[in-house]
């Protein structure tokens, strides 16, 4: 819920700074490893946008898939979970390099 | 009105259209878009929290304070661990505590009996502490230089993982009465933590908890995670924990 509130806050402040009164849509990048459930975010968004310039705004979620890098064998691979062994060497020394994103990319305003 | 969340717009995302019929809703939107323009934002949704967390971190750094964010599910023994720890170290190290719970002063009252400064943060319906709450809480505490600040987060293995408070590190506590597969069920918290304390090991003979399996699951999520096994109740393993704490203290 607080993430949805942040999204509406940031979008409304940006709109205000740009002299816009109405937000048509908000584009948000959500990584698969960001710890955020897209459906819940969309649900909360509907509740928190009321009585704001984003009241009728559409939430457009862009899913960012996860990527990991193996420190042991230097392999990079796609993953949407944290508990992944390296598919090349079965090693544990895997660092997530993409998919933690939780970012407002852009807004469309009137 | 939508009877699930009261949003008043139940069908906003639904479209109803027969084959070969023009999509009026779409046409209407295209018309609106002619007047709208795009603004590039590129802002982290947690930007405000992260900024406040860095302010807290700067304050801790300036005063050589070691801030430790204790996270776990409810009932893992965080408060008991803190009570026992404080009694052990308070004669050598200045300690302060921020207690996070949805309701009640109970945990703060328990810590207060140990004689160290404590502030209770009640989050109401909130399921985690955030950097703003910590900023206010540290204004209430007269934190000493080179002290250790324990932040006992709301018992929840999900949301506190996302919110940086400005701490030096997160410590995740799991008790042996929980499932050993918690690290894989709640990976975000184990990914965010630097140390994992396995508590209540005095109960190991009576439960099916496999310590090695738990560690393996946790390492699959976070290969840098360190472990300490202890029982806050019997004192077993507390020595290692206290030495670890002393190593963290800044000089």
Structural description of this entry:
The complex is a heterodimer of chains A (110) and B (251). The two termini of chain A are 26 Å apart. In chain A, helix 1 crosses helix 2. Chain A is built from two helices and six strands; from the N terminus they run H-E-H-E-E-E-E-E. Chain A has one domain: hypothetical protein PF0899 fold (2-Layer Sandwich), CATH 3.30.2320. Chain B is built from nine helices and eight strands. With 251 residues, chain B is α/β, with parallel strands linked by helices. In chain B, helix 2 packs parallel to helix 5. Chain B has a single domain, classed as P-loop containing nucleotide triphosphate hydrolases (Rossmann fold), CATH 3.40.50.300. Classes of the chains: A alpha+beta (110), B alpha/beta (251). Chains A and B meet through helix 1, helix 2 and strand 6 of A and strand 1, helix 2, helix 7 and helix 8 of B. Strand 6 of chain A pairs antiparallel with strand 1 of chain B, so a sheet runs across the interface.
List keywords for this structure.
heterodimer; A: 110 residues; alpha+beta; hypothetical protein PF0899 fold; 3-stranded antiparallel sheet; 2 helices; 6 strands; 33% strand; elongated; B: 251 residues; alpha/beta; Rossmann fold; 7-stranded parallel sheet; 9 helices; 8 strands; 35% helix; globular
Summarize the structure.
The complex is a heterodimer of chains A (110) and B (251). By secondary structure, chain A is of the alpha+beta class. Helix content of chain A is 25%, strand content 33%.
Blueprint of the fold:
The complex is a heterodimer of chains A (110) and B (251).
Chain A (H helix, E strand, L loop, with lengths): L1 H16 L5 E9 L6 H11 L9 E7 L2 E4 L5 E3 L15 E5 L3 E8 L1
Parallel strand pairs in A: 1-2
Antiparallel strand pairs in A: 1-6, 3-4, 3-5
Helix pairs in contact in A: 1-2
Chain B lengths: L23 H10 L3 E8 L2 H16 L3 E7 L5 H12 L5 E7 L4 H7 L5 E5 L8 H10 L7 E5 L16 E7 L6 H4 L1 H6 L2 E5 L11 H11 L4 E4 L8 H11 L3
Parallel strand pairs in B: 2-5, 2-6, 3-4, 3-5, 6-7, 7-8
Helix pairs in contact in B: 2-5
């Amino acid at each position: 819920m607080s993430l949805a509130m942040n999204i509406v806050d940031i979008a409304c402040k940006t709109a205000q700074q740009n002299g816009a009164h109405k937000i048509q849509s908000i584009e948000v990048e959500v990584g698969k490893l960001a710890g955020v459930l897209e459906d819940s975010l969309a649900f909360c968004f509907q509740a928190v946008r009321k009585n704001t310039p984003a009241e009728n705004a559409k939430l457009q979620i862009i899913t960012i898939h996860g990527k990991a890098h193996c420190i042991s064998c230097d392999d990079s691979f796609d993953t949407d979970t944290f508990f992944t062994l390296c598919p090349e060497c079965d090693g544990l020394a895997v660092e997530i390099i993409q998919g933690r994103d939780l970012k407002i990319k852009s807004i469309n305003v009137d | 009105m939508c009877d699930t969340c009261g949003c008043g717009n139940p069908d906003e995302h639904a479209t109803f259209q027969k084959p070969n019929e023009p999509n009026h809703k779409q046409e209407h939107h295209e018309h609106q878009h002619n007047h709208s323009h795009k603004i590039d934002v590129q802002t982290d949704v947690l930007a405000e929290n992260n900024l406040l967390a860095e302010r807290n971190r700067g304050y801790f750094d300036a005063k050589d304070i070691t801030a430790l964010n204790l996270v776990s599910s409810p009932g893992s023994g965080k408060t008991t661990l803190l009570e026992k720890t404080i009694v052990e170290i308070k004669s050598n190290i200045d300690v302060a505590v921020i207690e996070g719970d949805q309701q009640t002063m109970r945990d703060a009252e328990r810590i207060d009996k140990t004689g160290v400064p404590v502030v209770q943060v009640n989050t109401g319906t909130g399921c985690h502490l955030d950097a703003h709450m910590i900023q206010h809480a540290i204004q209430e505490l007269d934190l000493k230089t080179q002290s250790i600040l324990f932040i006992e987060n709301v018992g929840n293995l999900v949301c506190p993982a996302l919110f940086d408070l400005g701490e030096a590190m997160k410590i995740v506590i799991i008790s042996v009465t929980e499932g050993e597969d918690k690290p894989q069920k709640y990976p975000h918290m184990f990914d965010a933590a630097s140390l994992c304390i396995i508590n209540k090991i005095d109960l190991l003979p009576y439960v099916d908890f496999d310590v090695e399996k738990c560690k393996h699951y946790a390492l699959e999520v976070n290969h840098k995670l360190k472990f300490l096994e202890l029982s806050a109740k019997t004192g077993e393993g507390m020595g290692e924990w206290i030495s670890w704490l002393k190593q963290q203290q800044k000089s």
